[in-house]
């Protein structure tokens, strides 16, 4: 198990992140590969819950405000937002 995965798990536990926030953090991680479509699909499914939607958007906003060595957070947050806009049906 990579140290980044262990570090992320510890941060998730210490900060008491919800399941939705954990999925957003995982899909917008600093890992050198993009978020999986299955993980983005899980996040999209969670957006139908009002509380989870708020948590997801808050975490995405946090990721969009990262900079410097965390540029992948921004890039992957934009990728996730793009996926959510295209996949999630609008009322």
UniProtKB/TrEMBL annotation:
Listed GO biological process terms: endocytosis
ENTH domain ranges (all copies): 12-91
Pfam families: ENTH
PROSITE patterns reported for this sequence: ENTH
Source species, domain of life: Eukaryota
InterPro entries registered for this protein in UniProt: ENTH (IPR013809), ENTH_VHS (IPR008942)
GO molecular function annotation: clathrin binding; phospholipid binding
GO cellular component: clathrin vesicle coat; endosome; plasma membrane
The protein's name in its UniProt record: ENTH domain-containing protein
């Amino acid at each position: 198990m990579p140290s980044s995965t262990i570090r992320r798990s510890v941060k998730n536990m210490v900060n008491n992140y919800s399941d939705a926030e954990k999925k957003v953090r995982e899909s917008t991680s600093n890992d050198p590969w993009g978020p999986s479509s299955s993980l983005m699909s899980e996040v999209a499914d969670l957006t139908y819950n009002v509380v989870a939607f708020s948590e997801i958007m808050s975490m995405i906003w946090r990721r969009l405000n990262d900079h410097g060595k965390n540029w992948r957070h921004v890039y992957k947050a934009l990728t996730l937002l793009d996926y959510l806009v295209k996949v999630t049906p609008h009322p």
